[in-house]
Design a protein that fits this description.
- By secondary structure, this protein is of the alpha+beta class.
- It has one domain.
- It has four helices and four strands, in the order αββααββα.
- Strands 1-2-3-4 form a four-stranded antiparallel beta sheet.
- Strand 1 and strand 2 form a beta hairpin.
- Helix 1 packs across helix 3.
- The protein starts with a helix and ends with a helix.
Length: 154
């Protein structure tokens, strides 16, 4: 993926999936999808990925997290659009970037991130998260694997 157009389309598509899914979750609020396994459960997350740092809701934390998010977007954006990467590496960085953009949109508009994917077994619930969080995690794993594979060939 060397041209800016496919890269831009990839980013816009993933951000669109994230934002659309969040708007659906806001309208649904709660729905059991797969009994004893998966719910849509609307959660307002003032923290970071998977609910970390969500105990504090002050304005300074929101501003700090927006600044960190913007730095992340600038860093990964510069790698994504300027550096020659393998297709796998490009798709992975695009996932990190789109997840960051999706969550920054929420935090800027709402002061919190909308989380809604609730995996659980009986009474054991995993962190509630969203597609942007998933894109970031999958993208980081892919980027590390791409970098490892590329460096091991050198």
């Amino acid at each position: 993926m060397t041209s800016w157009l496919p890269k831009t389309l990839w980013l816009v598509s993933l951000v669109g999936i994230d934002q659309y899914s969040k708007s659906l979750a806001v309208s649904i609020k709660f729905k059991e999808i797969v009994p004893s396994f998966l719910n849509v459960k609307l959660t307002e997350n003032p923290g970071i990925i998977f609910g970390f740092l969500s105990q504090s809701t002050n304005h300074q934390q929101t501003v700090l997290l927006i600044i960190i998010g913007l730095i992340t977007i600038i860093y990964f954006g510069s790698l994504y659009f300027k550096k020659t990467l393998t297709n796998f590496g490009s798709y992975s960085l695009g996932m990190i970037l789109s997840g960051s953009i999706g969550n920054i949109i929420d935090r800027t508009l709402n002061g919190y991130v909308i989380d809604f994917i609730d995996f659980y077994y009986k009474d054991l619930h995993y962190w509630t998260f969203n597609f942007a969080d998933s894109f970031i995690v999958i993208g980081l794993i892919g980027w590390f694997l791409s970098d490892y594979y590329h460096n091991s060939k050198a």
